Amino acid sequence: MASDVLRGRTWRLGHDVSTDVLSPGAYAVDPVEIRKLHVLESIIPEFASEVEVGDIIVAGRNFGCGSSRETAAENLKALGVACVVAESLSRLFMRNAIAVGLPALICTGAHIAFDDGDDILVDLAAGRVINTTNGVEIPADPLPEEMRRILASGGILAVLRNQVEA
Amino acid sequence: MVAGVWERVEDGFDTVGMNLAESILARASGRDQVAAGEFVMAEIDLALLHDIFAAQVFDLLGEVGVNGVSDPDRTVVVIDHLVPAPSTAAAAIHQRIREHVSRLDITAFYDAGQGICHQLLPEQGHIRPGDLIVGTDSHTTTYGAFGAGGTGIGTSDMVYALATGNLWFRVPETIRFEMTGELTTGVSWKDVILHLTGRFGADGAQYRAIEFTGSAVTDTDMSSRLTVANMALEMGAKFGLFAADEVTDAYLRDHGGSGCDPFKPDVDATYEAVHEVPLSELQPQISLPHEVDRVSPVGEVEGITINQAFIGSCTNGRIEDLLVAAEILDGHHVAPGVRLLVAPASRTVLGEALDTGVVASLVEAGASILAPGCGPCFGGHGGLLAPGERCIGTHNRNFIGRMGSAEAEIFLASPATVAASALTGKITDPRELS
């Protein structure tokens, strides 16, 4: 059962991080165990080896822009990333993140409030992001209940499995 | 109830109109009214899958324990990305798709060589105004040209949609672009959508629907509307919508359908923002590497040399686009060292191009005609770029590394600008050749 309150260490990324960077096309048909090793490699080569379970991405505008490929979100989840917080999220990335069970929250102002490695607390339901390293608190759009219910189930396929078995 | 027509409560106080996106999602979810920000469970009118994701989606469906799709007649499968199969692995994926399609009784199956999904679905009469359409492809927004709510989804959402026939949606806010004035000679609707992307940015319509309205839209042909709706996605849009009118009706009748009633927003519909877009002063536009929203008038970057020119894609691979290119290239030859690649958007388009002499003009000008399909647009095969090379194309994305080397550069422009540039070997404003 996913929690609405998450706490972790931040990785700070820039604007317009595309699906080509999150899920490079060259590994498109490889299994997730291979794909996840190449996440962000064109901008942060050490990301896949150094990211730890529970880490949280804080990004700029238009995170996950580009194609409909769900692997962009799936790869991050497979690496243990607990949540993505961004100034704005590509609609397709947002949709896919919910579908695979990766929380993603829009928070205007988050990008300038964090340094790499800061400690972050995210309350999805309340719409609250806190930099617990320096105490700065930033309001965010609460994640709608409809999306949180899908996340709590573990993603849209888990929702479907429950419906099929019911 | 007729799509988009909602019986109002005429109490003198409380009449709330709906825009196109709200009308589409209200009908699909069986509601009288919905408003931006609401979540709805909506019935899917059409689900589209192409060869990059279809086999995976059908496999997943089985893994979840679902043995069929909820409505095979509302499911369309197209093999268009890896065409003809450039590798044994791609051929094997195509083979699996054919097996799945047969097992699932899906009759709307377009095998390799028939064309690009976003060309075939309109051309073969699958799109109706007011419909809600999902596809495992970001450019599913193309169907907004007909007033249909087309939008991209991922593979897991598609599994859910195929299994249940429904999917959740958030009703988007809508931005309206009021297009006024007339385009001048040499300027096309590709230039308009590139201009809008540059002006409002790659996330200028994030999560939002766009409605393209105004006097300039009324006379626009369906080919241009398809180009604009296709690239609405490059501004982050969920839908890129045109009202259905006489042009829509005529297109549907010409393509085996029975036409359509008008489908328009209610007169008192509300919008998050309305922007006026005057067209009469617009110059030919070009998107510079490596962001679609890095847009400049062509005139300001003229003279940059190119190695490859590409005419095709779901954005600009229709007969109207090929005719424009052929008119510029007819009787001439592309510049030495320039490779001109032309991929008609469908076999029907290729047939029209043969009948009208377009293919002959292009081939005599030095073009290579590729199989109908996505061609080199997404960098999967055929027409890849070496480090340091530059390509100008009529397609919709120029992200770093999209067409081969990450050290190559991609420029996006109209068919006229691409043809003119192929002729001179450098980026050229097409108006200078006439």
Q: What is the domain tally of chain A? A: 1
Helix content of chain B: 25-40%
Largest sheet of chain A: 7 strands, mixed
Count of discrete alpha- or pi-helical segments spanning 4 or more residues of chain A:
8
Strand percentage of chain B? 15-25%
The greatest interface here is:
A-B, 38 and 41 residues
Secondary-structure element pattern of chain A, one letter each: EHHHEHEHEHEEEHH
Secondary structure layout:
The complex is a heterodimer of chains A (166) and B (434).
Chain A: E1 5-12, H1 19-22, H2 32-35, H3 47-50, E2 56-59, H4 71-78, E3 83-86, H5 91-100, E4 104-106, H6 110-113, E5 119-123, E6 128-131, E7 136-139, H7 145-153, H8 156-165
Parallel strand pairs in A: 1-2, 2-3, 3-4
Antiparallel strand pairs in A: 1-5, 5-6, 6-7
Helix pairs in contact in A: 4-5
Chain B: H1 20-28, E1 39-43, E2 46-50, H2 54-64, E3 75-78, H3 88-103, E4 108-110, H4 117-123, E5 132-135, E6 149-152, H5 155-164, E7 166-170, E8 174-180, H6 189-200, E9 209-213, H7 215-218, H8 222-232, E10 239-241, H9 246-254, E11 273-278, E12 285-287, E13 295-297, E14 308-312, H10 313-316, H11 319-329, E15 339-343, H12 347-355, H13 358-364, E16 367-369, E17 390-393, E18 409-412, H14 415-424
Parallel strand pairs in B: 2-3, 2-5, 3-4, 5-6, 8-9, 8-11, 9-10, 14-15, 14-17, 15-16, 17-18
Antiparallel strand pairs in B: 1-7, 12-13
Helix pairs in contact in B: 2-5, 6-8, 11-13, 11-14
